[in-house]
Amino acid sequence: MYTIIDIETTGGKFNEEGITEIAIHKYDGNDIIDSFVSLVNPEKAIQPFVVNLTGINNKMLRNAPKFYEIAKRIIEITKDSILVAHNASFDYRILRTEFRRLGFEFEIPTLCTIELSKKIIPGLESYSLGKLCRKIGIPVSDRHRANGDALATIKLLQILLQKDKEKVIVKNTIKSGNKRDLSKKLLTILDELPVKTGVYYFHRYNGDILYIGKGKNIKKEVNKVFLRVSKKSRALQKEMTSVTFEFTGSELIAQLKFNEEIKIHRPKFNKNSKPKIQYTKYSNENMILIDKGRVISEKSVILIEKNEYQGFGYADLEYQINNLEVLKNLISSTNNLVDQNNSIIKYLKNQTIEKIIRF
After folding, report:
1. Tell me, what DSSP letter sits at residue 138?
2. What span, in angstroms and rounded, lies between the C-alpha atoms of 163 and 312?
3. Are the beta carbons of 239 and 204 closer than 8 angstroms?
4. Using alpha carbons only, how large is the chain's radius of gyration in Å?
5. Which among 56, 69, 144, 210 is least buried, having the fewest CB atoms inside 10 angstroms?
6. Which uninterrupted H or E stretch holds 53?
7. How large is the average pLDDT for residues 311-328?
8. How far is CA 254 from CA 32, 54, 322, 351, in A?
9. Using CA atoms, how far apart are residues 84 and 186, in angstroms rounded to an integer?
10. What is the pLDDT of residue 278?
C-alpha cells in the first residue's frame, strides 16, 4: 500500500518552512482508495517567489485549518503504507518537522520517484516532475499545486511499476510492510484478490518471487494454485507469505509480461521451458496494436517495428499513441523477442483486439 504525497510550503530557512497545501492519495497499486487534500494555515508569511510559483497567497490561507487540526487525518491515511513522493526527502522532512512541533515522532517507510526514475528510466536530461512528465507523456494539471503534482506522481508511479522488471519497488514494499504471521494466509490472500485480468506473483517474506502466474481472472487462477496437492505445490504454499498482482487489462499483455518476467526472475516454482522457434513474419512490418487498458479511460498499446516486437505500455490520450517518440518512452521494452513475437502472432490468429494502426 502506498500513500502518494505532495506538499507546498512557505519557503524560507531550512526547517523553518510551514505547510501551505497538502495532498495525500492512498493507492493500492491499482486504484486510489482514499484521498485528503487541503490548504493549510502555516501561521507565517509566504515568501513572494513561492506566491508567484504556486499562486497560493496569505489571504487564501486565513481560514484554512492549522496543521494540528489535520494531523490526525494524516496519521490515519498514511497508516500501514509506504510514503511516495517526487523528492521524498523534502516532503518527509517537512512532515516530520511539523509533527515534532506537536511533540510527535512521525516515522514511515519512503520511496522517492526521482531515485526510482533514475534507476528505471536512465539517461534523461532532467528528472524534475514537469520535464519527466512531458518526456513520457503524462498530462499535468495545476502544476506546482499539491493535488496536481500528487496525481501526476501517481501516474508516474504506475509507469515505474510497469517498467520495473526487477520488481525493486514491490520487493521494498513487502520488506517494509509484510511482517505479519499469516496463519490463515490462503483464505486471507484469496479474499483480497481481484476478478480481473493480469499477472500475479507469490513472494517469500523478504520479497523474493517464488512463482509467477497469469490469467483473465486473477482470483480464480490463484485459487487453482492453492487447490493443487502435489508435493511441489504444498512446498510453495508453505514458503510463500504474500501475493501481489498487476492488472494488464489485455490478455495479450498478461502473456507478454508473464514471458518476460519468467526469464528475468526464474522463480523457484515455475517450470523452466525452452522456447520453441516458430517465429514467422507479421502481416505488416510496422504496427501499433491497441486493446483494453487497465481502466476504461486508457488503452493498452503494443509496438511492432521492422517486424519485431518493441514493447508495451498504456496511454490515456490519442497523441500518446500517435506520437512515436512519446510512445517509445511509455512502453516497456524486452530482450525476449522469440517468445514475445510467437505469443503475439499466435494471439492475433486466434483472438481479436480493438484496433491495429499500420504505419
Report:
1. -
2. 10
3. yes
4. 23
5. 69
6. helix 48-54
7. 88
8. 22, 41, 23, 14
9. 29
10. 65
- Give tens-digit pLDDT for 109-156: 999 999 999 989 898 889 999 999 888 888 888 778 999 999 999 999
Taking 3-state DSSP, the helix, strand and coil percentages for the chain, each rounded to the nearest 5, stand at 40, 20, 35
Residue whose C-alpha cell reads 511492432 in the numeric block: 304
Closest CA to 289 of 335, 343, 235: 343
pLDDT, tens digit, 9 for 90 and up, residues 197-256? 999 999 998 899 999 999 999 999 998 888 888 889 889 988 998 899 999 999 999 999
Q: Are 253 and 300 in contact (CB under 8 A)?
A: yes
Pairing of strands 287-292, 299-305: antiparallel
| Rounded Cα–Cα distance for residues 153 and 203 (Å) | 26
Three cell numbers, residue 269: 516454482
- Mean pLDDT across the chain: 89
Please report which helix (H) or strand (E) contains residue 157, including its range.
helix 146-163
> What Å distances lie between residue 143 and 53, 139, 146, CA to CA?
9, 10, 8
Contact yes or no for 3/29 (Cβ under 8 A) = no
Q: What is the pTM of this model?
A: 0.72
Task: List, in order, residues 6 or more apart from 282 with CB less than 8 Å away.
Answer: 304, 307, 341, 344, 345
**Residue 77 backbone dihedrals phi, psi, to 5 degrees:** -75, -25
Quick one: pLDDT band at residue 275, thresholds 50, 70, 90? low
Cα 260-294-263 angle, rounded to 5 deg = 5
Identify the residue whose cell numbers are 508453505. 238
Q: Is the pLDDT of residue 180 over 50?
A: no
Q: Cell 508511479 identifies what position? A: 157
Task: Examine the pLDDT at 286 and tell me if it is beyond 80.
Answer: yes
Residue-by-residue DSSP string for 299-327: EEEEEEETTEEEEEEEESSHHHHH-HHHH
Looking at residue 279, its pLDDT comes to: 61
Could you tell me the end-to-end alpha-carbon distance of the chain, in angstroms, rounded to an integer? 41
Distance (Å, rounded) from C-alpha 283 to C-alpha 263?
A: 27
CA pair distance 45, 104, nearest whole angstrom: 24
